[in-house]
Specification:
about 160 residues; 5-stranded mixed beta sheet; alpha/beta; about 25% strand
Length: about 160
Amino acid sequence: MSSVPITKHGAELLKEELARLKSKDRPAVINAISEARAQGDLSENAEYDAAKERQSFIEGRIADLEGKLSAAQIIDPALLDADGRIVFGSTVRLEDMESGEEVTYQIVGVDEADLKDKKVSITSPIARALIGKSAGDVVEVQAPAGIREYEVLEVRYI
């Protein structure tokens, strides 16, 4: 399995979720299954069916998180020295050349991307266009609405 880049913060969030699933959610669903079994006939027991379905989801998510963490290449953006170039983990301030609007994005792994939090996936069109560029460069991004041009105003590693 190839390594998948993830920021240090993103890896910490996945580890926290995994710990919560193992220490709280898994024991709670096991208890719920036990209580549902004590009620008798399982063939028409909705609580039992719901608890088993929840258990299946939790076990699947645990396996998914363990797989992602084992394949993760954890990158701490604060330790990067890319000579001002945009790389994975960079925080980039851009100006839309058409509207003059400024936006700031951090380039992160697929699992931690969240546009509301200004985090774009390394696989997104904007991130792919930005990789390797530096402050002062103009990049063209193929967006659903057409080609957009951005000027890179600042590159930070935070």
